[in-house]
TrEMBL record:
It holds the Pfam family HTH_3. One of its GO terms (molecular function) is DNA binding. SMART domains: HTH_XRE. CDD domains: HTH_XRE. Keywords: DNA-binding. This is Helix-turn-helix.
Length: 225
Protein backbone atom coordinates (compact mmCIF):
# COMPACT_ATOMS: atom_id res chain seq x y z
CA UNK A 1 0.00 0.00 0.00
CA UNK A 2 1.32 3.44 -0.96
CA UNK A 3 2.37 5.66 1.92
CA UNK A 4 1.40 9.31 1.82
CA UNK A 5 1.62 12.36 4.03
CA UNK A 6 -1.29 14.38 5.36
CA UNK A 7 -0.37 17.37 3.18
CA UNK A 8 -0.62 15.38 -0.06
CA UNK A 9 -3.59 14.56 -2.28
CA UNK A 10 -4.16 11.87 -4.85
CA UNK A 11 -3.88 12.49 -8.57
CA UNK A 12 -7.12 11.31 -10.23
CA UNK A 13 -6.38 8.03 -11.98
CA UNK A 14 -7.80 9.31 -15.31
CA UNK A 15 -5.53 12.38 -15.29
CA UNK A 16 -2.49 10.33 -14.30
CA UNK A 17 -3.07 7.78 -17.05
CA UNK A 18 -3.75 10.48 -19.64
CA UNK A 19 -0.47 12.24 -18.82
CA UNK A 20 1.47 8.99 -19.13
CA UNK A 21 -0.26 8.05 -22.41
CA UNK A 22 0.40 11.47 -23.92
CA UNK A 23 4.03 11.35 -22.82
CA UNK A 24 4.41 8.09 -24.72
CA UNK A 25 2.68 9.44 -27.85
CA UNK A 26 4.79 12.59 -27.77
CA UNK A 27 7.92 10.59 -27.01
CA UNK A 28 8.69 12.84 -24.06
CA UNK A 29 11.21 11.82 -21.43
CA UNK A 30 10.44 12.32 -17.73
CA UNK A 31 12.77 15.29 -17.69
CA UNK A 32 11.25 17.00 -20.73
CA UNK A 33 7.68 16.32 -19.56
CA UNK A 34 8.49 17.80 -16.15
CA UNK A 35 9.85 20.97 -17.79
CA UNK A 36 6.75 21.34 -19.95
CA UNK A 37 4.32 20.63 -17.10
CA UNK A 38 6.20 22.82 -14.63
CA UNK A 39 7.06 20.30 -11.92
CA UNK A 40 10.26 18.69 -10.70
CA UNK A 41 11.52 15.71 -12.67
CA UNK A 42 11.18 13.37 -9.69
CA UNK A 43 7.43 14.12 -9.58
CA UNK A 44 6.94 12.75 -13.10
CA UNK A 45 9.33 9.90 -12.43
CA UNK A 46 7.51 8.88 -9.25
CA UNK A 47 4.15 9.11 -11.00
CA UNK A 48 5.38 6.92 -13.87
CA UNK A 49 6.49 4.37 -11.27
CA UNK A 50 2.98 4.19 -9.84
CA UNK A 51 2.97 6.82 -7.11
CA UNK A 52 -0.31 8.78 -6.93
CA UNK A 53 -0.06 11.15 -3.92
CA UNK A 54 1.63 14.54 -4.28
CA UNK A 55 1.34 18.03 -2.94
CA UNK A 56 -1.75 19.93 -4.12
CA UNK A 57 0.21 22.38 -6.30
CA UNK A 58 1.78 19.48 -8.18
CA UNK A 59 -1.51 17.65 -8.56
CA UNK A 60 -3.13 20.79 -9.99
CA UNK A 61 -0.41 21.02 -12.65
CA UNK A 62 -0.68 17.33 -13.50
CA UNK A 63 -4.46 17.61 -13.89
CA UNK A 64 -4.06 20.64 -16.19
CA UNK A 65 -1.22 19.10 -18.22
CA UNK A 66 -3.25 16.94 -20.69
CA UNK A 67 -4.81 20.00 -22.37
CA UNK A 68 -1.37 21.45 -23.13
CA UNK A 69 -0.04 18.06 -24.17
CA UNK A 70 -2.93 17.48 -26.59
CA UNK A 71 -2.12 20.79 -28.30
CA UNK A 72 1.50 19.69 -28.65
CA UNK A 73 0.36 16.36 -30.07
CA UNK A 74 -1.81 18.13 -32.64
CA UNK A 75 1.11 20.36 -33.62
CA UNK A 76 3.30 17.28 -34.01
CA UNK A 77 0.72 15.63 -36.28
CA UNK A 78 0.49 18.74 -38.45
CA UNK A 79 4.27 18.87 -38.82
CA UNK A 80 4.36 15.22 -39.82
CA UNK A 81 1.55 15.72 -42.35
CA UNK A 82 3.32 18.78 -43.72
CA UNK A 83 6.57 16.85 -44.12
CA UNK A 84 4.76 14.03 -45.92
CA UNK A 85 2.99 16.51 -48.20
CA UNK A 86 6.22 18.32 -49.03
CA UNK A 87 7.74 15.06 -50.24
CA UNK A 88 4.88 14.39 -52.64
CA UNK A 89 5.79 14.93 -56.28
CA UNK A 90 3.82 17.08 -58.70
CA UNK A 91 4.11 16.99 -62.48
CA UNK A 92 5.07 20.16 -64.36
CA UNK A 93 2.61 20.57 -67.24
CA UNK A 94 3.52 21.76 -70.72
CA UNK A 95 1.64 24.99 -70.10
CA UNK A 96 3.53 25.63 -66.87
CA UNK A 97 6.81 24.94 -68.64
CA UNK A 98 5.76 27.45 -71.28
CA UNK A 99 5.04 30.08 -68.62
CA UNK A 100 8.47 29.50 -67.10
CA UNK A 101 10.07 29.95 -70.51
CA UNK A 102 8.06 33.16 -70.96
CA UNK A 103 9.53 34.53 -67.75
CA UNK A 104 13.02 33.61 -68.92
CA UNK A 105 12.52 36.05 -71.78
CA UNK A 106 12.64 38.83 -69.18
CA UNK A 107 14.46 37.39 -66.17
CA UNK A 108 17.74 35.59 -65.61
CA UNK A 109 17.82 32.34 -63.62
CA UNK A 110 19.22 34.30 -60.68
CA UNK A 111 16.30 36.75 -60.84
CA UNK A 112 13.81 33.87 -61.01
CA UNK A 113 15.53 32.28 -58.03
CA UNK A 114 15.13 35.52 -56.08
CA UNK A 115 11.50 35.79 -57.18
CA UNK A 116 10.40 32.23 -56.40
CA UNK A 117 12.87 30.92 -53.82
CA UNK A 118 13.52 27.89 -56.07
CA UNK A 119 17.18 27.10 -56.73
CA UNK A 120 18.74 27.99 -60.08
CA UNK A 121 19.83 24.38 -60.57
CA UNK A 122 16.28 23.11 -60.16
CA UNK A 123 14.86 25.83 -62.43
CA UNK A 124 17.38 24.86 -65.12
CA UNK A 125 16.48 21.20 -64.68
CA UNK A 126 12.79 21.97 -65.22
CA UNK A 127 13.42 24.13 -68.30
CA UNK A 128 15.79 21.53 -69.79
CA UNK A 129 13.18 18.81 -69.09
CA UNK A 130 15.55 16.91 -66.83
CA UNK A 131 13.03 17.40 -64.03
CA UNK A 132 9.45 16.74 -65.12
CA UNK A 133 8.13 16.55 -61.54
CA UNK A 134 9.04 18.46 -58.39
CA UNK A 135 8.23 18.26 -54.70
CA UNK A 136 4.87 19.77 -53.85
CA UNK A 137 6.51 22.50 -51.76
CA UNK A 138 8.55 23.59 -54.81
CA UNK A 139 5.51 23.38 -57.08
CA UNK A 140 3.56 25.64 -54.73
CA UNK A 141 6.35 28.24 -54.78
CA UNK A 142 6.26 28.28 -58.57
CA UNK A 143 2.47 28.36 -58.60
CA UNK A 144 2.35 31.26 -56.17
CA UNK A 145 4.85 33.42 -58.04
CA UNK A 146 4.58 32.33 -61.68
CA UNK A 147 1.55 30.25 -62.54
CA UNK A 148 -0.95 32.92 -61.57
CA UNK A 149 0.12 34.34 -64.92
CA UNK A 150 -3.12 35.10 -66.75
CA UNK A 151 -3.03 33.23 -70.06
CA UNK A 152 -5.52 35.69 -71.52
CA UNK A 153 -2.86 38.41 -71.20
CA UNK A 154 -1.10 38.89 -74.52
CA UNK A 155 2.32 40.38 -74.99
CA UNK A 156 0.65 42.24 -77.83
CA UNK A 157 -1.15 44.39 -75.27
CA UNK A 158 2.14 46.26 -75.01
CA UNK A 159 3.17 48.12 -78.15
CA UNK A 160 6.11 46.32 -79.71
CA UNK A 161 8.98 48.22 -81.31
CA UNK A 162 9.45 46.23 -84.53
CA UNK A 163 8.35 49.08 -86.79
CA UNK A 164 10.36 51.63 -84.82
CA UNK A 165 13.54 49.54 -85.01
CA UNK A 166 13.00 48.71 -88.68
CA UNK A 167 12.62 52.39 -89.55
CA UNK A 168 15.78 53.19 -87.56
CA UNK A 169 17.60 50.88 -89.94
CA UNK A 170 15.92 52.55 -92.90
CA UNK A 171 14.63 49.31 -94.42
CA UNK A 172 11.22 48.26 -95.70
CA UNK A 173 9.07 45.42 -94.43
CA UNK A 174 10.02 43.44 -97.51
CA UNK A 175 13.75 43.96 -96.89
CA UNK A 176 13.42 42.95 -93.24
CA UNK A 177 11.51 39.81 -94.17
CA UNK A 178 14.16 38.91 -96.76
CA UNK A 179 17.03 39.38 -94.32
CA UNK A 180 15.29 37.25 -91.71
CA UNK A 181 14.22 34.61 -94.21
CA UNK A 182 10.52 34.89 -93.34
CA UNK A 183 7.38 35.78 -95.23
CA UNK A 184 6.62 39.50 -95.34
CA UNK A 185 3.14 38.77 -93.96
CA UNK A 186 4.78 37.81 -90.65
CA UNK A 187 6.51 41.18 -90.40
CA UNK A 188 3.33 43.04 -91.32
CA UNK A 189 1.26 41.06 -88.85
CA UNK A 190 3.68 41.67 -85.98
CA UNK A 191 3.94 45.39 -86.70
CA UNK A 192 0.15 45.73 -86.84
CA UNK A 193 -0.11 43.48 -83.78
CA UNK A 194 -2.74 41.28 -85.37
CA UNK A 195 -0.94 38.07 -84.39
CA UNK A 196 1.51 36.98 -81.73
CA UNK A 197 4.70 35.25 -82.82
CA UNK A 198 6.17 32.27 -81.02
CA UNK A 199 8.97 32.80 -78.51
CA UNK A 200 11.69 31.81 -80.98
CA UNK A 201 10.37 34.39 -83.47
CA UNK A 202 10.69 37.16 -80.88
CA UNK A 203 14.20 35.88 -80.22
CA UNK A 204 14.98 36.10 -83.93
CA UNK A 205 13.89 39.75 -84.06
CA UNK A 206 15.81 40.42 -80.84
CA UNK A 207 19.07 39.05 -82.23
CA UNK A 208 18.62 40.86 -85.54
CA UNK A 209 18.07 44.28 -83.96
CA UNK A 210 20.54 43.67 -81.12
CA UNK A 211 18.09 44.46 -78.31
CA UNK A 212 16.53 42.61 -75.42
CA UNK A 213 13.30 40.77 -76.14
CA UNK A 214 11.68 42.69 -73.27
CA UNK A 215 12.58 45.97 -75.00
CA UNK A 216 11.45 44.63 -78.36
CA UNK A 217 7.96 43.77 -77.14
CA UNK A 218 7.56 47.00 -75.17
CA UNK A 219 7.78 45.43 -71.73
CA UNK A 220 10.96 47.29 -70.75
CA UNK A 221 12.83 50.47 -71.66
CA UNK A 222 16.21 48.77 -71.22
CA UNK A 223 17.39 48.40 -74.78
CA UNK A 224 20.50 46.28 -74.29
CA UNK A 225 22.23 44.51 -71.43
Amino acid sequence: MEKHFSNTVEVPSEARQEVLDLMARLNWSNRYAAERIGVARNIVQRMSQGETFFRQEHVDKLIAAPEMMKRKLEEKKKRQESNQTNHMMKEISEWQLGVLNDYLMFYSYEELHQLTGVSRTLLMGIVNRKRTAVQLSVYEKLADKLYKFDRRYSRLQAKNRIKELREEKGISQEQLAKELGVDVSLVRGVEKQVNEPATDTWQMFSEYFGVWVSYLIGASDRRVR
